[in-house]
Write a structure and sequence with these properties.
Oligomer: single chain
Distance between the termini: 60 Å
Largest sheet: none
Strand content: under 5%
Shape: flat
Helix content: over 70%
Number of helices: 13
CATH class of the domain at 146-261: Mainly Alpha
CATH topology of the domain at 146-261: Receptor-associated Protein
């Protein structure tokens, strides 16, 4: 019986890998037709779906079996939008991915595949597999917000130049979104989305507020508040943008100084746990070896 359990576990893992490979591989007839068309030089037409598309479809189907409370789904959708995933299928794919990781982690540790089975360790692994996609999504959203925050001064300079050249605020936002497409793609996509909302008939203040809600960047929220107040009170947009640009650059310099001041504190832990032990071994190690070689024979002779 003890010999059969590893054999059954190996058979189950082999069947699981084979089923996944068959599910992700393209059909034989489609592959043959595609290769014949490439040889003849004929247009291939629509390419077969890639493995990422098939995997996303599998996760989307798996999401139907996951619990979906309305409050949590709203928060997840906001985090996905902040990370740059706006497609309607992004939420079910993420929910299915989280459930799939939890199930796979539980199965791998509940069966004696990598060693002795442990149900408590399998439950802990399932919990980690359920939480890790959310942690990764939060990290991706933070990185995107940081990129948008770094690109704001350049966007403000372009806005000032465009407005002073005679363009309206809507046309200036459109032009800045086009010019930033290569250097700052994240902010360019957000500005283009604002332009699309304006073309669809959304009010300017509502479109700008939607921009602040989607990104979750505090500097962008302050910029939106300034633009809305400028539009409401009728003050000079170019002058307001110039003042706000100088303020934003000052804040960015202060953040850099703050990060530089924190460097000494952050270096304490690598120094204590990584560098100091090696220094102690190099400096005190030979003296300790000599100490043992001299004193231990003297103690033994007594």
């Amino acid at each position: 019986m003890t010999i059969m359990l590893p054999l059954l576990a190996f058979l189950f893992a082999s069947l699981l890998v084979t089923a996944g490979a068959m599910a992700l591989s393209p059909g034989a007839a489609a592959a043959i037709q595609r290769r014949l068309g490439e040889i003849r030089g004929e247009p291939v037409g629509d390419a077969p779906p890639s493995y990422r598309t098939k995997l996303a479809g599998s996760f989307e189907k798996l999401s139907k079996y996951a619990p979906t409370p309305a409050g949590e789904m709203g928060k997840l959708r906001a985090r996905l939008v902040a990370a740059g995933y706006r497609r309607p299928e992004a939420l079910p794919v993420f929910v299915g991915m989280r459930l799939g990781f939890a199930v796979v982690s539980f199965v791998l540790l509940a069966l004696p595949v990598f060693g002795r089975a442990n149900i408590f360790l399998a439950i802990g692994a399932a919990a980690m597999g359920y939480l890790l996609p959310g942690m990764a999504l939060g990290r991706m959203a933070q990185r995107r917000q940081h990129r948008i925050r770094l690109s704001l001064p350049d966007a403000l300079d372009l806005l000032v130049v465009s407005v002073e050249a005679g363009l309206g605020l809507d046309q200036a936002i459109q032009r800045v979104g086009e010019e930033l497409a290569f250097a700052h793609k994240d902010l360019s996509d957000e500005l283009r989305l604002v332009n699309l909302e304006l073309r669809a008939g959304t009010g300017r203040s509502d479109a700008l507020h939607n921009l602040a809600k989607r990104t979750g960047v505090d500097d962008l929220s302050s910029l939106v508040a300034m633009l809305v107040q400028t539009d409401k009170f009728g003050t000079s947009v170019a002058q307001s943008l110039r003042v706000h640009s100088e303020t934003l650059r000052t804040k960015r310099r202060q953040r850099a100084e703050e990060a530089a001041a924190k460097t000494g504190v952050k270096m304490v832990f690598p120094l204590v746990f990584c560098i100091f032990p090696a220094i102690w071994v190099v400096t005190i190690g030979p003296a300790a070896i000599k100490f043992v070689q001299v004193l231990f024979p003297m103690a033994a002779n007594r």
